[in-house]
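Form 12-C: Joint structure prediction
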Amino acid sequence: EPEVTQTPSHQVTQMGQEVILRCVPISNHLYFYWYRQILGQKVEFLVSFYNNEISEKSEIFDDQFSVERPDGSNFTLKIRSTKLEDSAMYFCASNTDRSNYGYTFGSGTRLTVV
Amino acid sequence: QKEVEQDPGPLSVPEGAIVSLNCTYSNSAFQYFMWYRQYSRKGPELLMYTYSSGNKEDGRFTAQVDKSSKYISLFIRDSQPSDSATYLCAMSLNSGGYQKVTFGTGTKLQVIP
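Section 2 - Result
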C-alpha cells in the first residue's frame, strides 16, 4: 500500500539552529500538508500546499516556517531558528483531492530542541 | 469553548469489552466527521468517516454522529489488544474550497488481554 515517508524519524537540534524536515508524499497525490503534535496535545494544522504554493496556513506557521517542493517528489518543512517550544512530532500528509478529507499521514519526525 | 473536545483518557478495558469513545464539538459548520487511530510513534490512520447524522458500521467499528447534539462516538465491539492505540476524532469543514480538518486531543485506549 502506498505510504507517505518522512525523514528523519528523530531530530535533535540546538535552539536557534535551522532544521529541515523531509517528506515524500504518495506519488499521485497533489495536496500536501504539515501538522504538528506537541506531546500530550492535539494534532494541529500548520500549512497546506498545492501547485507549488501555500494554500492555507495557521497562526502557528509564522515567518520562522517555510515549505518547499524542491523536486517532483520531496516536500520539506524548514524551521529557520528553532525554539524550545518547536519540540513536537511533525506529520506530513497528502491526498489526491482538496475536497477529500481522508489524508494519508506519514509516521512523523520527532523534533527535539535543546 | 474548544472547537472539538475529547476525553484524553486513558481508558483501560478487558479484551472482548465494548468500547465507547466520544467527542463533542461547537462549530455547526463541520461537515465530515472522522476517527483516526494512532499507534505509538506512528502517524494517524483514517479508520472511519461519516457525513450525516446516524450510524455507520465497518466490521467491529461503528461511528455515530448526532449533529443536533454536536456529539460523535466510536464504538468498538469485541475489543482486541491490537486495538490499543490513541483514537483521534476529527472534523472538517469547507474553507476556501479545501477541507480544513480539526482534531480532538485523542483518547488513549488500552485493551488488556
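Section 3 - Comments
The radius of gyration of chain B is 14 Å. DSSP finds no helices and eleven strands in chain B.
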